[in-house]
Amino acid sequence: MKELSQQQLQDKYQEQTESFAVFLFTPFCGTCQVTERMLDIIMTMQPGLPLYKSNINFLPQISREWQITSVPCIVIVERGKEKQMLYRMQSVDELYRKLLPLCSK
What we know:
By secondary structure, the protein is α/β, with parallel strands linked by helices. 38% of the residues lie in helices and 20% in strands.
């Protein structure tokens, strides 16, 4: 998973040339670390998945604009659709099913 800065993430969001997901985290959040391990498993199964990560501590503008309420948060951005926020990461299987459609777009 490539880590994006605030500027890189804003650019990617505004371009919207592809659908993608971004995992928002903080470094000392235990639940975020568990979620990142689950996402690493998914990335092993689907290496072409357009999934990025960003430390929310360095995204003050995006966290306000997107109204991020807590971490971990996975934001799914699809062209022509409203952003989808995932705050509950129950299992690898559930996350896989939510993120898999991004591979075909």
